[in-house]
Amino acid sequence: MLTWPHPGTDWFSRLKEVEPVFLAIARAVLRFENLLISCEHVFRAEQLDRELNAWARENGLPGRAHCVPAPSNDTWARDHGPITVQTSDGTRLLDFRFNAWGGKFPWEKDNALNHHLATAGCFGDIPLDTVDFVLEGGSIESDGEGTVMVTSECLMSPSRNPDYDRAAIEALLGETIGANRVLWLNHGYLAGDDTDSHIDTLARFCGPDRICHVRCDDPSDEHYPALAAMEEELRQFRQADGSPYQLTPLPWPDAILDEHGERLPATYANFLIINGAVLVPVYDVAQDEAALTTFRELFPEREIIPIQCRPLVEQHGSLHCVTMQLPRGVVEL
């Protein structure tokens, strides 16, 4: 799932730069699977539907695009899109509340987006359950076997769910997404991050027994203390059977600054796993190739596809942040 940028978003002055990034993501996904795109404007939805599907057919690709008009404030589908769970009764879509990372930006359209898509018939007969709890998809990382990794800075933020303590949050994650273990990171930081340290910018599961994570090797860098403390926490984490995780550090990209000289939150941890491939954000810096080599070692059975995300990071997010996966059979094409 992608939520397409439009002139009413913060991308209005950068649409010529950012739309090619979304097109690159869309085309990479269509090589392997179907794609749902929501668009603010009907004409853009129709145009994308026509052009992307013509391209997919011409290239003999398995994927098809389903482009639907739906209002949005912004493009961060990872955080406002539905979270899917598999239950004994089948697939369910969970629509958690979204308040733009604690009320930092306008959010009302994004919070209603999943219901617009459901009303448009995008999800077929799959139920969309509203959950009265603020939770962004980028703030949770699952191993697929009942363990969820989060950061305390984000989930304990008083601007999200002030009435919930840690125990109450763990109980809710168990009831809603089936988490039977929650691993809390109390350290971790990226300059320029608006999300209060989303886990998907810092540490990710690459399998039930392996975690890749951001590492800063420069003691003079402002990130060094927090990320070193985070790595020590990761070393202390244990799998369900009591064994330690295998840890893989990711390269630390050269500092990328905005036009005002402020550092942007570029991170290779914001990768996306799709059917048969891993899409990896790159930023036109010296460490890009080392990052791609690392991902080839982590996912030898998948194609590693670089996506130039330098324009995305201008708005303080990256590749995983603008996407949300949906399992086979959810989207009605």
From TrEMBL:
<keyword id="KW-0378">Hydrolase</keyword>
<protein>
    <submittedName>
        <fullName>Agmatine/peptidylarginine deiminase</fullName>
    </submittedName>
</protein>
<dbReference type="Pfam" id="PF04371">
    <property type="entry name" value="PAD_porph"/>
</dbReference>
<dbReference type="InterPro" id="IPR007466">
    <property type="entry name" value="Peptidyl-Arg-deiminase_porph"/>
</dbReference>
